[in-house]
Every structure is written in structure tokens, then in C-alpha cells.
Amino acid sequence: MATSIGSIEKARCDARECKVALVGFGTVGKAVAGLLAARTHEHSLRLTHVFNRDICSKRVGWIGDDVQWTEDINDVLASDADIVVELMGGLHPAYEFVRRALLEGKSVVTANKQLMARYGSELMQLSREKRRVLAYGACVAGGVPVLSGLHEGLGGDRLYKLCGVLNGTCNYILTKLEREGVSFDQALDEAKQAGYAEADPTDDIDGYDARAKLVILARAGLNAEVNSEQVVCRSIRRLTKTDFEYAHQMGYTIRQISRAEVEDGVLYAAVEPALVPHDSPLAKLEGSQNLVVSTGEFGGETVFSGHGAGGNPTAVAVVSDLLHVVRSQAQLAMEPDRPRPRQYEVSSDFEAARYMRFVVRDAPGIIAALAGVLAKHELNIDSILQQPGHGKSALPFVVSLEPCRTASLDVALNEISRFEFLTEPPLSMPILA
Amino acid sequence: MATSIGSIEKARCDARECKVALVGFGTVGKAVAGLLAARTHEHSLRLTHVFNRDICSKRVGWIGDDVQWTEDINDVLASDADIVVELMGGLHPAYEFVRRALLEGKSVVTANKQLMARYGSELMQLSREKRRVLAYGACVAGGVPVLSGLHEGLGGDRLYKLCGVLNGTCNYILTKLEREGVSFDQALDEAKQAGYAEADPTDDIDGYDARAKLVILARAGLNAEVNSEQVVCRSIRRLTKTDFEYAHQMGYTIRQISRAEVEDGVLYAAVEPALVPHDSPLAKLEGSQNLVVSTGEFGGETVFSGHGAGGNPTAVAVVSDLLHVVRSQAQLAMEPDRPRPRQYEVSSDFEAARYMRFVVRDAPGIIAALAGVLAKHELNIDSILQQPGHGKSALPFVVSLEPCRTASLDVALNEISRFEFLTEPPLSMPILA
Fold first, then answer.
1. R_g over Cα of chain A
2. Run of H or E including A99
3. A98 CA to chain B: closest CA distance, Å?
4. Record: contact A335-B15, CB cut-off 8 A
5. Is the pLDDT of residue A72 over 80?
6. CA–CA separation, B426 vs B243, rounded Å?
7. Has A19 been annotated as catalytic?
8. Which of A94, A189, B260, B338 has the most other CB atoms within 10 Å of its CB?
9. CATH architecture group of domain B18-142+313-341
10. Is A244 helix (H, G, I), strand (E, B) or coil?
11. Integer angstrom CA distances of residue B394 from B97, B322, B359, B424
């Protein structure tokens, strides 16, 4: 398909063949190239360019000689490639590259969740103006087709709630804590050794990775535009095996849960460790599996789960998006305007039952003191649990509360944290029904 | 949008409004009309016609006066409706109506699984020729977006296996047997009283309903064209609480499982009761929930689950399909040819471990006799289980076998069934890993 650069028709895929440029040739890039090669007879996608730094060290023999390798993004942007696949990660220069590709009239497929969380609305708008497709199914939950599910299969419902386990690293660590009773640091070390955690695991364990995915999910499923910074993240760092013991005693386990829910014009959203019932699908995920439960006004709950990370599952999402682009190119001319995402007031002030774990130097009157503060703030105690076998100098026990708002609990906890009998700040988590 | 009948443009949806005719106004039809009314400000779909027998008894006040009610299908077919939604069920006259609608240049949305299993390929071909859309997401698993997931989100993978619980009635009955230890007939009666089973439950409990869904899934996910009649169905009628007791002892439960798997050019397919591990997602479904696990060469396992039946969940699937039609109308002109579904040799000769339950008049030498036949056919016994508490005149016990093919087992069972110590024919089920 030889077309003149600058023509409006340049980036429209021919019905028989669509030229694809890979920008970024790491684990996922390689897997995408492999999948394109393996399925080449079944589709009309042809790899024409690979962009990366230091291509000498990247070049592989199984990619044909007709593919151009380059370290200069301009080679890709000025080429006749129809679709640019952005797999670099990070905000910059990924943002500039994607923007320029759209301006050049190319469609874009990206697996970059930080990019889509931060600049997704702007880039979607640009793609609409340029009548091109920006597809990002690989940004959330890797190979789990949740974004296409929200757009396509559940497009007829009015969704109001999304809840999921979106970070495999946290799930791996929490499963280790739960099963092997190791310390958090030890579980983290093992996750690093097993290749499940980065050298700097902050993004994963403090919730920022899951938050970017939640922002993208909320936009796709709830039509809600949210700045990541508005969404509260709470770390899983403070969890110990004691918390799992208490949670089990109560019929629950603990997972890093990402939630977004629209109610009365407010978007409640948070990423935090939470107690989930043992028989919930959220409780049963293994390793890097991801799971999303969507709830709609008409269709009720729908569950999507599968491999959330890894080269091949993510490559499946990328190639599925490429096929979607091929199918979609022509329809842009007559697609009705989608409603623009709505800006919401964002709150993490969910109503939920609560788990509070205190560690105290034992002395008379502790429960009375705590109960007094809770009563003052109209927080109702549901149960008090104390396991045997701990010394009196650092005695853990758990108080569970009937459903209350985060805000009133935080005021009470702030007051409680001043008590001198506490050996560490109280830990609180929501208990999901 | 007033266009002349017969024009090629007649049935193309205007970007602002798409006219919808409902053919069939039962539970699902009413729910679709309700959903369209509730979301009217969010999309460009407008209900213009309702066809049903005896419309006087069907007419409802909350549907506006601008909607034409009719008992004559020609009123719909000759109208300017862009999309016909077929919700009559049954093969005839649904087939003729859908065919005529496509010939008239209308797109069609259907929730009719028997129609799509039997005539799906032909009708899809006709829709391509007429450059119209035939959407059928509501045919399988009601509101669970599995068909869109296979087409869209997993389009980039090469799927080779589908396994699921596709019939809510069977799941309800089996759950009753398992939990309450009632007889099959009693569970069936209660399912009828609760509205989960039809007066004639044959389609559900003997597997024909699930089989139609499996045929549609295999076409969508495995690109395999199968005649329903080629797929073996085994009934759940013979199961008793004893089978659940043995299954539990072995770490399993029993579900009606629909499976299709491509291996070496053969499509293995069956609908039958099977043992599934207690911790499998298949084991945990409640009531009318449906679940499908797809397995791909690149992305591994993906799980979809949700409400498989009911007016509102099915209506969500129908309206999602309507929105898909609106989006798709323009792209038909340049969509690359999809590979035509492949005709497969169909076999139910899965390799699997087996559960065999015998009921005998106790006497010496029974195990020896059975073991002799099994050994002759090179079937290896894995375990023999016998629970106490049964009389010697009708003593049940279970033999489990190491993985073997259905065909060799059937030969052995045929031979075994001639033994006079059996008080009923042996019952066998696959044990899924």
C-alpha cells in the first residue's frame, strides 16, 4: 500500500494488510512480534518497523529482513505504518510519541497504563479529531479482556461499581504472608527473587500501579474522568500474619482491592488492603492473576479473570487491539458521539464495616478507653477479638465495627492514636461484604 | 430518517438515531424495551415496532404512542426499522423472519440459541453478503459478555479450549442434590416450583440447551463449525446424593460441564455431568450463574462469569449488541474477510480420568470380575471407594480410573453391564483436572 505521506488516507488500513510499527522492544514487544509472526496467516497485520534504543543489542534473527529497525522515532512517524504500538512505558517521551503518531494520522495501540491514566482523555479526544483509533486494552489486567467487556458486552448496561484485584505483585506477597506466615519484608524479598517485584516496589505495594488501572477502568466502565491524585492509596506494607489470623477467624482474607463506585453524583474510589469473604472470587486469586467484578443496574455482577501480566498475555491484548483497529478504521466516520466522560467529585469515604488492629502494652482500662472514643463518634463495635499467645508488652487485638464512613473513623482513630498504651499506630481496613 | 424502501441505504443507522423493532414481547422483550426507555438519553436507539401474537394482551402503557404494535411480521419487514431484534425463540418461524429481515437490508440482533446453533453459519454468511450485522451475544450465558470477549478482547490469541457451566437449571438441581441430599426428582420438582425449570425440562437436564450454546461458542472462539447432532449429550438424571458423597471424598463436586477442545485436527466436544475439583471456579457457581473458561495458546486461561439467564441480564446483552450494530454498520465495507469457520471431525472421545459408580447385590468376587474386564481393556484402576451404611442388596461403590479415552471405557462398560450382580447400569463420568 504505497500512499503519499500527508494524505488523509495514509493511515487507513488496507482491507488486506495493515502495517504495524513497534515502539519498544522489551518483553511485551518481543511477545507481540512473536504472536504476529505465529498468526501471520490468520490476519492482515504486517510488522514493518521496530523502534528501540540500542537496537544492536535488541535485534533478533527470527524477524524478517523486510522489517526496519531504528533508534530514531522520526523514522516511524514519517513511515507508511498504519498503526504505532507504544510499549515503552513511562510518561515521557511516550506521551509525545503517541501524540505525534496520532497527529500524523496513525492509529495507536498502547499498553502504557500510566500514560492512559494521566493523558487518556486528551489523547482519546485527539484520536477522535483525527478519525483514528487509540486502543488500550492491554493497560488493565494484561490478557484479561475486561476493557473490551465493559465497552462491548456490557455496553448496554449502566454500570455503577467496579471492584478488583489489579496488581499481581501485591497478590503474590499477600498470598505468601497468608500461607507461609512470613514477615512482609521476607515476602517482598521472595517476590523480588521470583521476578514478581521490581527492585523499587513502591508503585506496586503502595497502590500506584493499581490506581492507574482503576482510573482507566473508571473511565471505560463508569464514564468517569478522575485524576489519579484524587484517588487515595493505602499501602499493604503494614500487614502481618497476625492480621491474616484475625481475618481468617472472622471468615475473611486480605487482598489489595481497587474500587470505584458512583453514588449520588460522587465517585467513591480507593486502592487499599481490605478484608474480603473467603468464598468471594477476589479471595481465590493465585499469583499474578487479576480479577475484576463489574456491577450494573440491569445485569448485576459480571466477573472477568485471567493472567494480569507477563509477555504473552499482554501481547494477546495488544494483538486483539490491533485487530480491533483494523475492524474499526472505517466506522469512525459515522460513529455517534459517545458521551464525554463526566468529571466527578472523588471521595474515598466509602461506607463499610471495619477491621481495626491495635497493638498495646497491656494494662487495665484499655478497652474502656477505646470504646469511649468510638462511642463518642457514634461508631458501633461489632466484635472484639484477642488471640492467645502474645506477650503483654506488645499485645495485638482486633476490634471490628459495624458499617461506617471512612471520615468519621479517621477522626476517631486520630484521637485514639494519642493513647500512650499503643505501641504502634492503629491499622484499619474496610471489610467488604 | 425517512428513506425509500428498497434503497441500499435504508437500513443504515443514522449517526443520531437507529430504529429498532422488537419481534417477540415476552420476558426478555419487555426487559429490552424497559432498558431502551431507561437509557434513552444515553444512546441513539429508538423503539419503533413491537411484533407479537395477541398484542391486545401484551400492550403496556409505559411504551409511547409512537411505537407501532403489530401481529403481522410484514409490518416490521416492510417498515423503515434499521434493526430487527428477534426474541421469539424456537427454529420456526424465527429462521424465516431473520432471513427475510436480512434480505430486506436490516441488521438483526437475536437471543435465539437454537436458531444460531442450527442456522448461524448460513445467516452470518447472508448478513455479510447483505453488508448487515447479525449480532447474537445474548445467545450464550445471557448477560455474561463471553462472545464479545472471545471476538474482541481475546481476538489476538489462538484459543483451543472452552469449558463451562452453561445451564442454570442443571446447576440449580445439582446444587440442591449436593447440599440438601434430596433425590433427583425432588430437586427437579423444586426447580420447577422456583421457576428455574420448565414443565418439560428435557432440554435443560439432558443437555440440549447447553449443547446449542456450546456449538455457538465453538464457532466464535475456536472457529469450528459443528452440527449440534454431532455433540454427545449425557443427562444428569441418574445422579444421586451418593455420587456427591463419593465425589466429595475424592475432593470434587459434580457439575453439568460443556466442553470443546481442538487437538490434532479433531474437535472433542461433549455436554455431560463431570467431576470438577472443589477449588475450581466451575465448582463454585450458584443458582443460575454461568461461567466459561477459555484457554489460549498465548494468553492462558481467562474466566468469564455472571448471570446466565433472566430478563434484565439477557436484555443487557441484547442492548449491548444493538449498540455494537450502530458502531459496526459503517465498517462492513472494509472489514477484512474473516477466516470461514472450519468443519471439524467431532469426537466426544476425550482423554480423562474417570469416576464409575456401580450398584450391586453383594457377593464374593465382584471386584475381581470388574478388575478383570478393566485390565483386559488396559484401563488402570486408581482407587476403589466404598462407603458404609448401605444394604447388601443394593450396595453402591465407586471405582476411579487413571486417564483413558471414552471409547475404550465404553467398550469395557458394555461388557461389565452384562454382569448379573449389577442392580442398575454402571454410571460413569469424566474427572476434570
1. 24
2. helix A94-103
3. 22
4. yes
5. yes
6. 12
7. no
8. B260
9. 3-Layer(aba) Sandwich (3.40)
10. helix
11. 54, 56, 6, 9
- Cα separation of A317 and A431, whole Å? 33
Omega prior to A364 cis, within 30 of 0: no
Which tens digits make up the pLDDT trace of A374-409? Answer: 999 999 999 999 888 888 899 999 999 999 999 999
Of A145, A157, A305, the CB nearest to B152: A145
For position A338, what pLDDT does the model report?
54
Catalytic site residue from B213, B241, B376, B392: B213
Do the beta carbons of residue A116 and residue A110 sit within 8 Å?
yes
Residue A152: DSSP 8-state:
I
CATH number of B146-307: 3.30.360.10
Query: H helices within A251-365, ranges in order?
Result: 311-328
A351-431 carries CATH number 3.30.70.260: yes
- Residues B304, B146: contact at Cβ < 8 Å? yes
Average the pLDDT over A248-277 and give the result. 94
Given an 8 Å threshold on Cβ–Cβ distance, is B153 in contact with A157? Answer: no
Confirm whether pTM is higher than 0.95: no
Give how far B164 is from chain A: nearest CA, Å: 14
* Residue B64, Cβ density class (10 Å: 0-12 exposed, 13-18 middle, ≥19 buried): exposed
For chain A, the 3-state helix, strand and coil shares in percent, each to the nearest 5, are 40, 25, 35
Cβ neighbors of B157 (< 8 A, separation 6 or more) are: A143, A316, A319, A320, B296, B297, B298, B299
The set of cell numbers assigned to A358 is 491495635
Q: Which helix (H) or strand (E) holds A217?
A: helix A208-222
Q: Nine-digit cell at A171?
A: 497478590
Q: Do B145 and A323 touch (CB under 8 A)?
A: no
Domain map (residue ranges) of chain B: 18-142+313-341, 146-307, 351-431
Per-residue pLDDT of chain B (433 residues; tens, 9 = 90+): 333 333 333 334 544 589 999 999 999 999 999 999 987 656 689 999 999 999 999 999 899 899 999 999 999 999 999 999 999 999 999 999 999 999 999 999 999 999 999 999 999 999 999 999 999 999 998 888 999 999 888 989 999 999 999 999 999 999 999 999 999 999 999 999 988 888 899 999 999 999 999 999 999 999 999 999 999 999 999 999 999 999 999 999 999 999 999 998 899 999 999 999 998 889 988 777 899 999 999 999 999 999 887 889 999 999 999 998 988 775 544 444 456 677 788 888 999 999 999 999 999 999 999 999 999 999 999 999 988 888 889 999 999 999 999 999 999 999 999 999 999 999 999 999 8
C-alpha cell at B204: 435443560
Does the beta-carbon distance from B323 to A155 stay under 8 Å? yes
Superfamily per CATH, domain A18-142+313-342: NAD(P)-binding Rossmann-like Domain (3.40.50.720)
Set of chain B residues whose Cβ sits within 8 Å of the Cβ of A281: 281, 284, 305
Rounded to the nearest 5 degrees, what angle is found at the Cα of B156, between the Cα atoms of B155 and B157?
95
Note the CATH architecture for domain A155-307.
2-Layer Sandwich (3.30)
Return the pLDDT at A186.
Answer: 96
Q: At A108, give phi and psi (nearest 5°).
A: -130, 135
